[in-house]
Amino acid sequence: MSTSSARIRTGAAHPTPRAPVRRRRLSAAERRRATAAYLFLAPFFIVFLVMLVVPLGYSGYLSLFETKLVGGTAFTGLENYLTAVTDPTFLAGVGRMGLFLVVQVPVMLGLALFLALALDSGRARGGGVLRLVYFVPYAVPGVVATMMWGYLYGRDFGPIAQLFDAFGASPPDFLAPGTVLGSMMNIVTWEYVGYNMVIMYAALRTVPGELMEAAAIDGAGAFRQAWSIKIPAIRPAIVLTVIFSIIGTFQLFNEPSLLQALAPSAISNGFTPNFYAYNLAFVNQDVNYAAAVAFLLGLVIAAISYIVQLRVNRAGAAS
């Protein structure tokens, strides 16, 4: 016993050296196939570099400078970033979108999950038509959807206000400072419920039918099957919709940009961080500070997305 242990320890202390791996030279046919693969990938990498990497690098370069009427452009390092992290307008916009994320995203994804489960259960008649009906709002351009809801919200000309007037009641003001954020949540929910529902429904269709039959034989009802089998099975799809929703929330632009004409007192130029960066760059002509704000916004989105994904993965591993 002791001799064998000593032999093992001796072997561990002096591992047998491996022979160097010699790379095999590619044949002419293999080199042609590799060249063809690189040629097929080249258009993507060219567009990726020109349309994403180069603009990002240029924006990062601009964010390190400051342009003044007197003195011209000067290198300031991280001063624009330090200004942005103490900018009350930027911080208020980030906080407003944080509230939007906490309230609107769970409602939207919960409704999308409910619709996906209802369609997957097969108990709803006309499932194909219903999928199309739920998805149609996503096919409507965001600008058109916002203008349509702006018309419906209008207190002087909208049909909702006219209906209240017909009954002699005072119409609600959907575009007041205290209600405009909720009105935007309603627009975004209307637009993206169908989109998220399609992602979840497609994931539900991959759940093995034998698993559901076994659960039914064991006496599990529809709710039990959905809660214990279907929802855990489509967790990656749900996480994907959450990440997409986080990114979309902090990039909210169409709604404040278009509704500002109807509610200028309720929607400021810094209502959302994305709208703030746009106004800084194209209204105030301060592209250097706008680039810093945009980069900070990207960091906020990346950090929140990473934290959410990490917590979901840990919760999945624990269960």
UniProtKB/TrEMBL annotation:
<dbReference type="InterPro" id="IPR000515">
    <property type="entry name" value="MetI-like"/>
</dbReference>
<keyword id="KW-0812">Transmembrane</keyword>
<dbReference type="GO" id="GO:0055085">
    <property type="term" value="P:transmembrane transport"/>
</dbReference>
<dbReference type="InterPro" id="IPR035906">
    <property type="entry name" value="MetI-like_sf"/>
</dbReference>
<feature type="domain" description="ABC transmembrane type-1">
    <location>
        <begin position="94"/>
        <end position="308"/>
    </location>
</feature>
<dbReference type="InterPro" id="IPR051393">
    <property type="entry name" value="ABC_transporter_permease"/>
</dbReference>
<feature type="transmembrane region" description="Helical">
    <location>
        <begin position="233"/>
        <end position="253"/>
    </location>
</feature>
<feature type="transmembrane region" description="Helical">
    <location>
        <begin position="132"/>
        <end position="154"/>
    </location>
</feature>
<feature type="transmembrane region" description="Helical">
    <location>
        <begin position="289"/>
        <end position="308"/>
    </location>
</feature>
<keyword id="KW-1133">Transmembrane helix</keyword>
<feature type="transmembrane region" description="Helical">
    <location>
        <begin position="97"/>
        <end position="120"/>
    </location>
</feature>
<feature type="region of interest" description="Disordered">
    <location>
        <begin position="1"/>
        <end position="24"/>
    </location>
</feature>
<keyword id="KW-1003">Cell membrane</keyword>
<dbReference type="Pfam" id="PF00528">
    <property type="entry name" value="BPD_transp_1"/>
</dbReference>
<feature type="transmembrane region" description="Helical">
    <location>
        <begin position="35"/>
        <end position="58"/>
    </location>
</feature>
<protein>
    <submittedName>
        <fullName>Multiple sugar transport system permease protein</fullName>
    </submittedName>
</protein>
<keyword id="KW-0762">Sugar transport</keyword>
<dbReference type="GO" id="GO:0005886">
    <property type="term" value="C:plasma membrane"/>
</dbReference>
<comment type="similarity">
    <text>Belongs to the binding-protein-dependent transport system permease family.</text>
</comment>
<keyword id="KW-0813">Transport</keyword>
<feature type="transmembrane region" description="Helical">
    <location>
        <begin position="174"/>
        <end position="195"/>
    </location>
</feature>
<keyword id="KW-0472">Membrane</keyword>
